[in-house]
Amino acid sequence: MSTWKNDPAHSRLGFVARHLAITDIYGRFADASLTVETTKPDLTDAVFTLTAQTADIDTRVPPRDNHLRSADFFGVAQFPELRFTSSVVHLGPDRTGTLTGTLSLHGVSKEVTFNLCVSEQVTNPMNQKPTLSFQVSGAVKRSDFGVGPGIPVSIVGDVIRVVADMECAPA
C-alpha cells in the first residue's frame, strides 16, 4: 500500500459562495489535509480522505468568518470537522476523471461526486521526494447539509463551488 499526504504549505481547500446574487466571495479552510491510499499506480483503487477544521474558515473578513463559525452556518462548536472519503475513482488516460464519496458536514453525510485531475509524478527538486498534485473541484448545495438554513439564497447562494489543490508526497 502506498500512502500520500499533502504538504500544507502547497495545498488549499477553497470555496466560492454567491453574495446578494451579484458577486462571488472566496474563502478557504486554513487547516485542511488529504491522505490518499492506493495499491495501484493508476490510482483506480485509491481512497481519498480530505478533512478540514471548520473553525479555520477564512474569507479575509474576520466578522464574516465569526458569523460563518456560528450556529447560523457551520456551528463549529458542535460540528468541528468536515470530511470527504471517496468510494469510487474514475480516472482516464489524460489523468482526469471523477471522485465519488461521502461528504460529512454539519452532521449530515451525503454522497457527492467531484471532478478530479491528477498531475504527472515528478521529483521535487527541494526534497528529492516523488510528488503528485490532486485537484478536486465541483459544487455542493449548502441546503443539502443544513448549513445556513435561516439565510435566504438571495443573500448567500445555495450552490457552493469547491476546489482543493493538494500537493502530496509519500508519507
TrEMBL record:
Name of a matching Pfam family:
YceI
> Domain Lipid/polyisoprenoid-binding YceI-like spans what residues?
3-169
Q: Which domain of life is it from?
A: Bacteria
SMART domains to which the protein is assigned, alphabetical: YceI
Spell out the protein name for this chain.
Polyisoprenoid-binding protein
Q: Which organism is it from?
A: Desulfovibrio legallii
Q: What is the lineage of its organism?
A: Bacteria, Pseudomonadati, Thermodesulfobacteriota, Desulfovibrionia, Desulfovibrionales
